[in-house]
Here is the input.
Amino acid sequence: MGVEERRQQLIGVALELFSRRSPDEVSIDEIASAAGISRPLVYHYFPGKLSLYEAALKRASEDLASRFAEPHEGPLGARLLRVMCRFFDFVDEHGPGFSALMRGGPAVGSSTTNALVDSVRQAAYVQMLSHLGVTEAPPRLELVVRSWISLAESTALIWLDGRRIPRAELELQLVHDFAALAAVSAAYDTDMAELLRTMVKDEPADGPFAELAGRLMSLAS
Amino acid sequence: MGVEERRQQLIGVALELFSRRSPDEVSIDEIASAAGISRPLVYHYFPGKLSLYEAALKRASEDLASRFAEPHEGPLGARLLRVMCRFFDFVDEHGPGFSALMRGGPAVGSSTTNALVDSVRQAAYVQMLSHLGVTEAPPRLELVVRSWISLAESTALIWLDGRRIPRAELELQLVHDFAALAAVSAAYDTDMAELLRTMVKDEPADGPFAELAGRLMSLAS
Here is the structure.
C-alpha cells in the first residue's frame, strides 16, 4: 500500500472502532490489530492516538456535513425531516464516539477537535439559511437556527442514553421544535413573523408543520 | 491569614479574573499580583493553575445552582421567568469565563470540570421537575426538560457573542421556549398533554404563557 492509501485505511479502521466504543477505551494496539499491521507501523503514519483520532473525526465531520445537503425542492417541512433522518442515521452509526466527543471526550480542549465540531455546526447553519432563502440572517433568526442546532445535538445525545424514545418520533419532533422556536420568536418580532409566513405558505395539509398546528389547535380547545 | 482563609481569598480573586477574561489568558502571576502575594505562595496553596481554575469553577457552579432555587408559590411562568433572570445575571457577571468553559476552555476534558458542569445541569433539572410537581420523569418529559436546559445554555452563549438582542427579551423567550417544547411533545403524547394542562391551568391571563398563546393565535389568524 502507498502512504496515503495506508493512512486512509487506518483512519477508516480507527473511525470504526471510535464509533462503536468510547475513544478513551480504544488503544493503538487494537487499531493496529484491526488494521492487520504492527503498532510501530501505526506510529509511522500517525505520531499518536490524538492525531489518528483527529483524522478520524475529520472524516466523520465531513460525512455528517455532507448529509445536510438537501435539494431545494418541495415543502420545507419534508426537506427538514429528511435531513433529520440522515442526522439520526449518522448518530446511530457513531453512537459511543458521538457521545464521548460531545460530552467532553479525550481530545476535547484540542483546538483541532473544537474547530471540527464548529465546522459541522456552521455547515448545518449555512444549509438551514439557504433553505430559508436567507443570505444575511438578522440576530433573532441566527439565534433560532443556531439554538435549534444545539437542541438537535442534545436531543440526539439524550436519545443515545438508553434509546427510550423511538428515533423516528424524535426526527419529527425536531422538525416541529424548529417551527415552535421560530413561532415563539415570530410572536414578538415582525421580521420573524414574515419569515414564518414564507416558511409555511407552501406547506401541504399533510406536512409536518400543518399536522403540528392541527394537533396544537385541538389540544388548546 | 489562615490556610483556608487564604485559599478562599485566592479562589475569589481567581474567579474574578477568570470571569472577566478567557481563563487561557489569565496567568498565575496576575492572580498573585491581584491577591497581593508572591507567585510561589500561590503555588503553596494550589499546585497549579488547573487546580485553582477547578476551585474557582466549583464556587461558580455552586453559586449558579443556588440561583435556581425558587419558592413553589404563584404561577409557574412567573417563577421560571425569575429564574431565567437570575441565570442571565450569572452569565452577565461571568461572561468570558462562561463562554470559554462552555465552548471548550483550558480545563475541558478534565473530569472535574465536566463533573461540575454536569452537576449544575442536574441541579437545574431537579429544580424544574420539582416545580412541575414530578418526582420520576417519564422519558419524554426528561427529554423536554434536559433539552430545554441545553437550549438555555446555547441561547446564553449566543447572547454573549455580541449581545445583539436585549437579555430581558431572551429571558422571556426561554420561558416561552419551554412552553413551546412541552406543547410539541404534548401534541403527540397524552401524558405530556396532561402535564401541559396542569402547567397552564393556574396561569394568569397576563402571565408569560397566556401572553404567548394570545400572540400565537393572532399570528395564526
